[in-house]
Amino acid sequence: MEPYLKRYRWVIVALLWLLYITFGLVTRSVSPLITPILKDLGITYSQMGFILGSWQLTYIAVAVIAGTIIDRWGVRRPLFIGTVIIGLSATLRYFPGGFGGFLPAVALFGVGGPLISVGAPKAISMWFSGKSRGTAVGIYMTGLWIGGLVAFTATNSFVMPLTGYSWRLTFVCYGLVTFVVALLWWLLARDIKPAEDTGSSNISMVFGRLIKERNVRVILLIGLLSFTVTHGFTNWLPQILEKGGFSPTTSGFVASIPLFVSIPAVLVIPRVVSPRLRRRFIALLALLVVVALMLSVTASSFTLIMGLVLFGIAGSSLLPLLMLVLMDTPEVGSEYMGSAGGMFFCVAEIGGFAGPLLMGALADMTGDFLAGTAFLAVLCLFIFAVTFLLRTPPAFKPESL
């Protein structure tokens, strides 16, 4: 890589970081506003659970197509289009008068979201190699948690008062921020090289080749389970806290604890965990999430805080480690990372859709969120078990070090 390109790759990381801030901001923006939305639109917990998972449902349909488009077009245009669509999703939430109107506005996010989450690792695989990949992935993924942190802490304490306590105008504000970031990406981003014909024109052949790899299959399963857990718990966390006696504003601040501690976690863990230890570390993180979930639903304030801190560290670190395992699988590499990433997020977001829906349905059935949280903990035990099926890439086997 030319020296000027080597320097410019950090500009790309900074831009990806901004894109992921808007991704996290818009993704998390519904949760702190559940109470006024339920009241104004007259919808149930189950309906809200469906809404919270609706963008994951559309995401599933778009993700695979997004991967092949990015493999062929590069990242600049698709990521711009994806960010604009995310901004539209936020802005259009101003208009609905009920469940039928609010649902498609939130679901639209799933059309633009895959272009960001599939395109970002593709960009990293093109611009970075070796240990620097872990650093770059950790940096841009902090944007996801920073965006969520802003949504949880600023929505009820700052943005809602600024907009006259209008949840509709709050969504418009988040949409405008997203449009500004989309413009910055369009003006400053570039592809490192022209998109090449990697054979991705034959979609079925590429997917067939990838799905034959055991690491790819295992990563898809772990992604499905981990997204069920993280989306199911975090989307309902402010409401869980409100049911526990916290005010909406306090719930937003307490719910931001996992997001706050996740920032240093995703900066450090992907960088310091060596490739040959990633399998064991993913298994350890799954067990830590089980402990975190159980602590988070106890009556003690101290154990609640400890559980949320642990969830932020362990839960946030799963995705970057899974992406790095996928990138470093020889049969994937940078050439097919778009297609592999599309497959990953397509399958994972099935869990992203199911998690919030199941939590809402179980809350309607039982009157609280304990049963749903226990179910998520069981899923983490499955993650622990299947992680040991992962193979360490040949270049990273201990005997070759």
What attributes does this structure have?
401 residues, mainly alpha, Growth Hormone, Chain: A, 0% strand, globular, disordered C terminus
Structure description:
The chain is built from 16 helices and no strands. It has helices spanning 3-28, 34-41, 45-73, 76-91, 99-107, 109-127, 131-162, 167-188, 203-211, 214-243, 248-255, 257-272, 278-296, 301-328, 337-366, 370-387. The longest helix is centred in the middle third of the chain and has 32 residues, at 131-162. Residues 194-200 and 396-401 have low confidence and may be disordered.
Structural class: mainly alpha
User: Which overall shape is indicated by the principal axes computed on the Cα atoms?
Assistant: globular
Q: How confident overall, as mean pLDDT?
A: 85
The beta-strand count equals 0
| Share of helix, binned | over 70%
Low-confidence residue ranges: 194-200, 396-401
- So, CATH architecture? Up-down Bundle
- Could you please say which CATH topology applies here? Growth Hormone, Chain: A
Short description, anyone?
The chain has helices at 3-28, 34-41, 45-73, 76-91, 99-107, 109-127, 131-162, 167-188, 203-211, 214-243, 248-255, 257-272, 278-296, 301-328, 337-366, 370-387. It has 401 residues and is mainly alpha-helical. It has a single domain (3-190, 201-393), classed as MFS general substrate transporter like domains (Growth Hormone, Chain: A, Up-down Bundle).
